[in-house]
Amino acid sequence: MKREEARTLLKSLDQTEGEARLKLALLGGWTLVLWGALWALGSFLLAWNPEVGGRFWTVAGPLGGLLSFYLGARQGVSVRTFLGLQTFYFWALLTLFALLHWLLLLPPTDLRGESFLVSLVAFAYAYLGTLWRIPGMAQAGLGLFAVDLVLYRAFPDLFHLGMGAVGLWALVYGGVLLWRWTR
Amino acid sequence: MALDPVIHQETRLRLMALLHALGEGAQAEFSWLKDALGLTEGNLSSHLAKLEEAGYVRVEKGYQGKRPRTWVALTPQGRAAYEAHRRALLELLRSEG
């Protein structure tokens, strides 16, 4: 075998492994599609009318959470991994933590509360990117935190629009991944 | 370090890479593997049979409720063989000429 063949083969193996981990970590792309759509719609609604946006999240948040856990459990039937189980429990704990913190410490109508929730999600992706050895995911988590920080501190009036744009990006990227993995 | 002829076939190598990526002790269902690799049932079965014969994968049949399922896992021997194969490829890459 020639060196170039070995190089191509190793690259292909790295790609296969990386793609498999990404697919599992993102539940086949559904995580980004679901939460990208909810995030975009919810954020744009909040920007347009906080009351309407708040009502949207009261319903969409718990439903989205339940659907995410269902998708995770369903994937766990097809692929049984210790990492998958760790991820499932991690999201469950984070959801509980976020819910308790938001309800008891920060009111849901406060921008600080929303920013805190975004930073939790950002931390989750940064952590899971490290756990699953997906550098791009860890970087995305850090990037999301940076966006959260900049919008909250420097452009609070644009916070919801900015988060809407982030949601749209996630929706599009998730859609591309979903298409790639299901065609 | 020599390349493993059992693993070196392209589809079997991808299959081993996929199973390796799932982590130690992981199991993947047959249909999930089939979809992930873009293979037909017959093709995947044939490659799994060769890997199982070599002791690199373990194939278990069971049920999830009433639905029959087939689970595939990389054995410790398979994990070691795949990692050795990767090292052999790296050595080839670093070799002179």
From TrEMBL, chain A:
Transmembrane segments: 21-48, 83-104, 116-132, 161-179
Keyword Transmembrane helix: yes
Record's keyword terms, sorted: Membrane, Transmembrane, Transmembrane helix
Transmembrane helix recorded as keyword: yes
Organism: Thermus islandicus
Protein name stated in the entry: DUF2157 domain-containing protein
Domain of life, source organism: Bacteria
